[in-house]
Amino acid sequence: MDDFSLEALLADAQGAGAKAPAHPVPTRTASEVPQRYDAFAGLADLAPAAAFLRDSEGRYLWANHAYAHLYGTVPEELVGKYIEDFDAPAEAEQFRALDQEILGRGTPVRHTLDYRRPDGSPGQAVGHRFPVRENGRTCVAGIYIDVTDQLRTRVQWQEAEDNLQALRDHSGLPCALLSANGRVVEASAAAAEVFQLSLPELVGRRAHTLLAPDPGLDRLHRRWNGLIARRTRRVETTAVLVDAEGRQRRAQLHLTTVGRSTARARHVWAVVTHQSLAHETHPSLTAAQIRILSLLAAGSSNGDIATSLKLSRQTVDYHLSRLRDLLGAATRPALVARAYVLGILSPEAWPPRSATATHPLSTA
């Protein structure tokens, strides 16, 4: 130390309104403190870290504003008072024991301590407590950062992560977290099952390798770019998924960006809400054939279909026979059922209509 006391320096930072300690300690006037320490005194007093100085009897010699704020008071109210004046008996005993440990060891200690906030809620602070020689005696100084809010935020974040993981793993919904460049970062077991892959095989894959060639891919790519550029936050669309065995299924996808803190989205959650039955690749269906299936599912007879589409009855009969062959359905009801389970017709629409204007089995 220089030729002035730390105690005097810190006392100077209190300002003229500080109350005198119960047992005053010798101090120097402001004019006696070298001017090069004025900035340090102001810094210590207004620093965000909570700092204090106590004597061996547990009496406060100095505290900055951050430390006093932990107790809902100001530094002037702390100086000259004892630990027990502000802390509950159990906590005061703990703090006195820590002080005595520092005085006995003579070396700094870094640790975390629990305390009670002014509103009665528990708090935590992390920092150092260390010995300081002052006027021939050893005092205890401490500097701490209140981490209560950070810890609470971390706990809440972990709870949210756990809840999301439970939802992902146990909801049964096929879902995956995709990076901005379309790589699978996380996925549910249900998603891995859709693609006939194990989770380790699915995570890390590029999403485009999981999609079948389809006229709607260009539109899907444009909507994906809109998500990443944050022109939109949610997209509901369809895509044709292909599994490890080459089988396809039409799926309805909900895409949602994660977070809003960056100009471009870094991750997107993809959730499959509806999916068709997995099937081998079929010959393409024409727009007319899909329209016939829609009318058939609505209950129209062959004659009604012919009238509606301005086709001959023989043409409609031919198309229905051809559709039964293509979709492996022996009867009209079976043909309608196959149209739904293969994702040709939308299960959410009435009157029946195509699941998409560019269905994977259609050239339309």
**Uncertain stretches:** 1-37, 360-364
The strand line-up of the biggest sheet is: 2-1-5-4-3
- Helix segment tally: 13
> From the helix content, strand content and strand pairing, which structural class follows?
alpha+beta
Ends: how far apart?
87 Å
Helix content: 25-40%
Structural summary, described in words:
The protein is α+β, with helices and mostly antiparallel strands and 364 residues long. Helix content is 37%, strand content 21%. It is built from 13 helices and 10 strands. A hairpin with a 5-residue loop joins strand 3 and strand 4. Helix 1 crosses helix 2, helix 10 crosses helix 13 and helix 12 crosses helix 13. The radius of gyration is 37 Å and the shape is rod-shaped.
Features:
364 residues, alpha+beta, 5-stranded antiparallel beta sheet, 37% helix, rod-shaped, disordered C terminus
In short:
The protein is an alpha+beta fold. The chain has helices at residues 6-14, 38-46, 65-70, 75-78, 89-105, 148-170, 189-194, 199-202, 217-228, 287-297, 302-309, 313-327, 332-341, and strands at residues 50-54, 60-63, 109-116, 122-134, 137-146, 175-179, 184-187, 234-242, 248-257, 267-275.
Secondary-structure blueprint:
Elements: H1 6-14, H2 38-46, E1 50-54, E2 60-63, H3 65-70, H4 75-78, H5 89-105, E3 109-116, E4 122-134, E5 137-146, H6 148-170, E6 175-179, E7 184-187, H7 189-194, H8 199-202, H9 217-228, E8 234-242, E9 248-257, E10 267-275, H10 287-297, H11 302-309, H12 313-327, H13 332-341
Antiparallel strand pairs: 1-2, 1-5, 3-4, 4-5, 6-7, 6-10, 8-9, 9-10
Helix pairs in contact: 1-2, 10-13, 11-12, 12-13
